[in-house]
Amino acid sequence: METLKAIGVGVIHVRVSASAPGKITLFGEHAVVYGKPAIVMAINRRIRVELSRRNDGRLVIDLPDISVKGVRLTVNLAGGSSMEALDSGSAASYALQALKLASEKFGGDLGLDVKIESSMPVGAGLGTSAALSVATLAAYAALQGFEPTREALAKMGREVEVAVQGSSSGMDAAAVAYGGAILYRHVKGDAQIERLSFGERIILAVGYTERVLPTSESVKLVSKIFSKHNSTVIRVLDAIGELVLEARRALETDDIKGVGELMNINHGLLYALGVSTPRVEQIVQVARGAGALGSKLTGGGMGGSVVCICPDNNTLESVVSAIRIAGYTAFGVTEDRYGVMLEGKS
Ligand code: MEV
């Protein structure tokens, strides 16, 4: 692992803001938890975290654009019960866990104002928990005079997800820390990350519906079916692993029709694993009917987001309108090349 780099040693800041992008998994979610490769791409929607020191020792988390409007959460860390008081899996629990981990690694106390803003729906399968965790880690480290590498932030981001949701392949944290598109694999505690370059050549829409279950629960559903029908489910996971490698070749040779076909196959296999819902199926079908070359659920599933690949920008507009007419949120997404960024220090 690359080491943590101290920036401007001794320079302790009073206010730092950092941001990290969301992501879409193009291929391989769920199977990645079982050591298969996945292709994931950071997108042009971000979560911003601003940390400012307070001198009364309290930790105040503002979630203006997230969950209930205008919520202000004051956490009494000395009381010891604050983590349990939060809904496990809520945006605040990722921020709090990230701050806890960062203060252990970089020192300092948690007397802070935390302001969080998101330009994408939270908990929609677009990597918002990873983006929030990684941006919070980067901001806190900078507050204390450190600038950790992307590799270190991805690793810590995974630790936060494991602590909050019980398990994580680390794929989302890597995607939002690095930016761009990557082939990700997590084998025996080791993350393998390979940068891929096709992101600017694909045209993607996202459709979104409310989630029925968070990622932690959909991962548990797959684990149950894996235990019950082991030899069958192993074949499904193997097939996903195979198609990810085929999709990589299709993406790198601009075989967009092939990419679409493989997305449809990947979606069918995710359906087989039991993580789709009727609404997700509706978005998938509406997108294909409007001209998408392929569409699949992206992320943990059980509601959440569907990614659709389009042959051109006119089709992108048709797909977005068709999904909206069907009653869902939809928007176009492009690749984010920057990953986690520090935005300001004082
Ligand atoms: C969630 O975005 C992706 C999953 O594969 C879980 C994980 O990788 O930890 C469902």
Automatic annotation (TrEMBL):
One of its GO terms (biological process) is isopentenyl diphosphate biosynthetic process, mevalonate pathway. Homodimer. Pathway: Isoprenoid biosynthesis; isopentenyl diphosphate biosynthesis via mevalonate pathway; isopentenyl diphosphate from (R)-mevalonate: step 1/3. It is an enzyme of class 2 (transferase). Its main location: cytoplasm. Residues 248-328 form the GHMP kinase C-terminal domain. This is Mevalonate kinase. GO terms for molecular function: ATP binding; magnesium ion binding; mevalonate kinase activity. It is found in: Cytoplasm. InterPro entries: GHMP_kinase_C_dom, GHMP_kinase_C_sf, GHMP_kinase_N_dom, Mev_gal_kin, Mevalonate/galactokinase, Mevalonate_kinase_arc, Ribosomal_Su5_D2-typ_SF, Ribsml_uS5_D2-typ_fold_subgr. The active site is at residue 172. GO terms for cellular component: cytosol. Its cofactor is Mg(2+). The lineage of its organism: Archaea, Candidatus Marsarchaeota, Candidatus Marsarchaeota group 2. Its EC number is 2.7.1.36. Residues 94-180 form the GHMP kinase N-terminal domain. The gene is mvk.
